Amino acid sequence: MTSFGYLHGQPPAAHLTIDLRQHFRDPHVSPELRYLTAHDEPVGATVWGTSGIAGLVEATAAAVIAFLSGPSAGPVLVADGCAGGRHRAPVFANRLAAQLRASGLTVALHHRDLDKPVVERGRCGR
C-alpha cells in the first residue's frame, strides 16, 4: 500500500487507486495544520471528522479481500492519494493498513510523499 500526493507526480501502479482530493476535509486549508503531517493528532482528527471516510476504509478493505479471494492469488497493490500526500492519504492508508492487519493480512505500507515539502496552493482543497 502506498499513500501519495498527486502534486508530486503520477500515482503509483496499483490494483486499486483511491483519490481522496475532492471528498474529504483537507487539513492543508487550515493554516494551523498545513505544515503538520499525518503523524500529528490534529491532522488525523480533521480527516476522521469527515463523514464517509470510515465507510471508505471499510469498502476498500472489503475490495482488497475480494481481490485476494480471486483465482490469481498474489499481492494486491493499493494506492491512495490526496493533493500533497502529507495529510489525507497517509491518514487513510494508516487506518486501512491497521484494519487489514487486524484481519490477519500482512501489509507493507509506504508513504511516498509524506516527508516532502508542503506544496503551496490555493484554498480549493484539491
From TrEMBL:
<dbReference type="InterPro" id="IPR005337">
    <property type="entry name" value="RapZ-like"/>
</dbReference>
<dbReference type="InterPro" id="IPR053931">
    <property type="entry name" value="RapZ_C"/>
</dbReference>
<dbReference type="Pfam" id="PF22740">
    <property type="entry name" value="PapZ_C"/>
</dbReference>
<protein>
    <submittedName>
        <fullName>RNase adapter RapZ</fullName>
    </submittedName>
</protein>
<feature type="domain" description="RapZ C-terminal">
    <location>
        <begin position="2"/>
        <end position="114"/>
    </location>
</feature>
